[in-house]
Amino acid sequence: xxxxxxxxxxxxxxxxxxRKMFEKGLExxxxxxxxxxxxxxxxxxxxxxxxATCAARKRIADEAVRPLGLGYCPNAGIPDVxxxxxxxxxxxxxxxVQGKDxxxxxxxxxALVSFFRSVIEPGDEVVTPAPYFxxxxxxxxxxxxxxKAVPSIPPxxxxxxRAIAAAITPKTRAIILNSPNNPxxxxxxxxTLRQIADLVENVNANRTRPLFLLFDEPxxxxxxxxxxxxxxxxxxxxxxxxxSFSKTLSLAGERIGYFLVHPEMPDGDTLVAAVALSTRTLxxxxxxxxxxxxxxxxxxxxxxxxxxxxxxxxxxEVLSSAGIEFExxxxxxxxxxxxxxxxxxxxxxxxxxxxxxxxxxxxxxxxGYIRLSCSVDEKIIRRSxxxxxxAVERLK
Length: 396
Description:
By secondary structure, this protein is of the alpha/beta class. 40% of the residues lie in helices and 14% in strands. The protein folds into two domains: 6-49 and 304-395, Aspartate Aminotransferase, domain 1; 52-298, Aspartate Aminotransferase, domain 2, CATH 3.40.640.
């Protein structure tokens, strides 16, 4: 007796490596204790929210007791929150936008799913550089979309523009770019992005159903050593942006994000309306009201990014000391380090024997590497140093 669809059954069988390792970490912590396990598997932001969060939360609590203070709101979001987001995004994206160009969503994930629901027909393709956030395939696949991963160029993991161009077919509906990137920490430079945007413009010159350039930007604020994350909207009028406050404000559990459409996109108002409708019909209904109010109050704040910078630098020391090769991440809070043996799963197992949890690169569509999250305390990073060395020596 089959209780679920074949597609969901297959997804369950190939469940995300990130979650598998996270669950393995819980098992090890129960067996050996918290202090014995070094868990770098999950990008769960642990840095406290900005100090202004406390006062903002109290104001929202006082307002919530009025009639309908926590009631339904428009599917696209609370109007004054959308306007506040537009003011912020106009600066960030170096392009004037209005509240009508923004939909408040249930995290960046909700933005992506609602977008794909709005634009994907069965058989449409979504192109993305690999390695990539593994859920992209499921987000597009829910509606019959097919993810086409195009290998990036190690060791910097810059997108291969020629390969992306070769991957575009009449069925290609979107190119999705994640910069700063999970899992590599790469920040795509403006020239590379401009070349990809030019591809999009050239393709759309002969299309009635446009090819979208979709930017997934939950890590936009995480840029180090003077690196700059280029604005997306000036690149092409076919640009859309999905973002969230899960990482920048450490509000991951609040599930609040946004979807932004270029104000000059042909028929862009229809796309905004479609994403708002999809937010409702997918069962989200509207983004969480408290989360929307918090995001509006804190939109120009960030967590203490220096904490992540110190962790990044310490993690680099630990990996270097163990003889593990890596490209220093310019953004986000991950390392995508090269496995000392071709089989990344073998390296993951060797680290597990040291009670160190990481995610194999194959979980992100790029074998031969491992991903480590730096959303952990510095004492855990330090504690892992000897275990990394032992695992590498054992494999040698």
